[in-house]
Design a protein that fits this description.
With 187 residues, this protein is mainly alpha-helical. The protein is built from eight helices and two strands; from the N terminus they run αααααββααα. The protein has one domain: Vanadium-containing Chloroperoxidase, domain 1, CATH 1.20.144. A hairpin with a 6-residue loop joins strand 1 and strand 2.
Length: 187
C-alpha cells in the first residue's frame, strides 16, 4: 500500500479543521450537557498538564535515556517547540475559551483557547514515541486521544482548538523525526 504524500495529508487536515470549526458551538453545547461522574473524575486527572508530561515525556525519556540519549533529546525538542509555538499562537489569536477565562499562575497572562497546548504537545511527541517505543504504541495513541478529548469534554477548548493543536503538533513531531533520521542523528 502506498503511503499518502504530505500534500494530501495537509489538505485532509485543513478539511478536518474547517469542519471542526463549523461545529464548535454544537460540540461545546453537547459536552456541556453530557456529563458523567466517572468521566469527570477520569478526565480531570488525564487533563492535568503535569500528568500529561509525566506519561508522554518523563516516563518515555527515562525508558530510553540510557540506550538512546539523543532520542530523549528529540522528545524534549518536540515538547519545547510545540509548547512555545502553542503559547505564541494563543497570544496571536486571543480566542476566548468556552468556559470563563483564567490566568497563568504568577504571570497574570490570560490563558486563551486557540490552539490547544495539550493537543499540540501530546501530538508532537506521538510520532516519535510510536516509532521508537512500538510495543507501547497503542498506549501512546490511546493516552494522546484521551488527553485531548478531555479538553473538549471538560469545556476548556473548542473542538477546532484541539484539532488544530493535534494536527500541528503531529506535523512538528513528524518533521523533527524526519530531520533527525535524514541527518542520521539517531543512529
Amino acid at each position: 500500500m502506498k503511503k499518502p504524500n504530505d500534500a494530501a495529508i495537509l489538505i485532509i487536515g485543513i478539511i478536518i479543521f474547517a469542519i471542526s470549526y463549523s461545529i464548535d458551538n454544537q460540540a461545546s453545547a453537547f459536552f456541556k450537557e453530557a456529563k458523567f461522574p466517572l468521566f469527570d473524575a477520569v478526565f480531570s486527572t488525564i487533563t492535568n498538564f503535569g500528568v500529561v508530561l509525566i506519561v508522554m515525556l518523563a516516563i518515555p525519556s527515562i525508558m530510553i535515556y540510557k540506550k538512546k540519549r539523543k532520542l530523549a533529546y528529540l522528545l524534549l525538542a518536540a515538547f519545547f517547540i510545540s509548547f512555545a509555538l502553542a503559547f505564541v499562537l494563543k497570544l496571536a489569536f486571543l480566542r476566548q475559551r468556552p468556559i470563563d477565562a483564567f490566568t497563568y499562575p504568577f504571570t497574570g497572562i490570560i490563558n486563551y483557547s486557540f490552539p490547544s497546548m495539550h493537543a499540540m504537545v501530546v501530538f508532537a511527541l506521538l510520532p516519535i514515541l510510536a516509532k521508537y517505543l512500538q510495543k507501547q504504541r497503542t498506549f501512546w495513541l490511546s493516552f494522546a486521544f484521551l488527553a485531548v478529548f478531555s479538553r473538549i469534554y471538560l469545556g476548556f477548548h473548542f473542538l477546532s482548538d484541539v484539532v488544530f493543536g493535534a494536527l500541528s503538533g503531529y506535523f512538528i513531531g513528524t518533521c523533527l523525526l524526519r530531520y533527525s533520521e535524514n541527518k542520521k542523528w539517531l543512529k
